[in-house]
Amino acid sequence: MTSLSDTELNGFSRLMFDAAGITLAPSKKALVEGRLSKRLHALGLASFTAYLQHLRTDAIERQQAIDLLTTNETYFFREPRHFAYLSENIVPTVDASRPFRVWSAACSSGEEPYSIAMVLAERMGQRPWEIVASDISTRILEQARRAIYPMERAEKIPQAYLKSFCLKGTGAQTGSFTLQPTLRERVRFAVVNLNAALPDDGVFDLIVLRNVMIYFDADTKRAVCRRLLDVLRPGGHLFIGHSESLNGLDLPVQAVQPAVYRKP
Q1: If phi over 0 gives left and psi between -120 and 50 gives alpha, with beta otherwise, what is residue 120?
Q2: Is the torsion defined by CA of 71, 72, 73, 77 positive or negative?
Q3: Is 127 a catalytic site residue?
Q4: Helices (DSSP H) in the chain: which residue ranges?
Q5: Overall average pLDDT of the 13-27 stretch
Q6: 201 catalytic per annotation
């Protein structure tokens, strides 16, 4: 199988930047080659250059390439301080006269929005709430909608939540678990490209955009955050990844604690 040249890597980097604002650093070369080589084989193409040319005219294959190159590392209750802040600082102040709305804006395979849903299901009682979860990858969203996870993924879920909201697989699903249907019904999934005009889906009380801005340059970060802040309700919160920062982006938010911001 042919190897990926620096020129070809630049071609895929341009593709990902144009599609999703994601920059593929030179350090991602082995990842790109590993993830796309099987597509060359499946299509009978001799080089990555030929595959790049093919992507210009095949929109379905282009989406598949984007799916393969989107990094989707996640797990339940990742960065637990965010869930503690949601439970202890945000939920007690919720306006009970309207639904509390959350957007998980790079939800990957669903662990993040389902973790949020468990917190809200426990803490909100009969007060209304809803979660919108989005990603650019159609493949990963299908996994999120199925909501079937290997049992080892349950390690970070608090025991009380595991008992209340999770179902252990039997028969063909032995070794896996899923979420209670009543919980899954509260999460709505959608394909959203954060690097383009956002769909008209109302305003949100909390937007969670974690561990995706590390792939954006400063201008893309600023543009994406401004789009999101336009649909964040005044007084609402923005969570970002603990390895990320909004410093120097000149955004209309106030830092509350590390990786937690509030819109005045």
Answers
A1: alpha
A2: positive
A3: no
A4: 6-20, 29-43, 48-55, 59-69, 80-85, 111-123, 138-146, 159-165, 181-184, 218-230
A5: 82
A6: no
The encoded tokens of residue 86 equal: 């949601």
Identify the active-site residue in 67, 78, 101, 135: 135
All CATH 3.40.50.150 domain ranges in the chain, comma separated: 80-262
Mean pLDDT of the chain: 92
Say how far residue 157 (Cα) sits from the centre of its chain: 18
Residues sharing a CB contact under 8 Å with residue 257, sequence separation 6 or more, in sequence order: 81, 85
Q: Please say whether the beta carbons of 43 and 49 come within 8 A.
A: no
How are beta strands 260-262 and 232-240 bridged, if at all?
Answer: antiparallel
| Residue in 35, 123, 145, 262 annotated catalytic | 35
- For 6-69, the fitting CATH number among 3.40.50.12500, 2.40.180.10, 2.40.10.340, 1.10.155.10 is 1.10.155.10
pTM (two decimals): 0.86
Rounded to whole angstroms, the Cα distance separating 259 from 19 reads 26
Work out the end-to-end distance of the chain between its first and last CA atoms, rounded to an integer number of angstroms. 55
H or E element at residue 232: strand 232-240
- Section 198-213 average pLDDT: 94
Q: Is 188 helix (H, G, I), strand (E, B) or coil?
A: strand
Q: Are 205 and 102 in contact (CB under 8 A)?
A: yes
Homologous superfamily of the 80-262 domain (CATH): Vaccinia Virus protein VP39 (3.40.50.150)
How would residue 72 be classed by pLDDT, with cut points 50, 70 and 90?
A: low
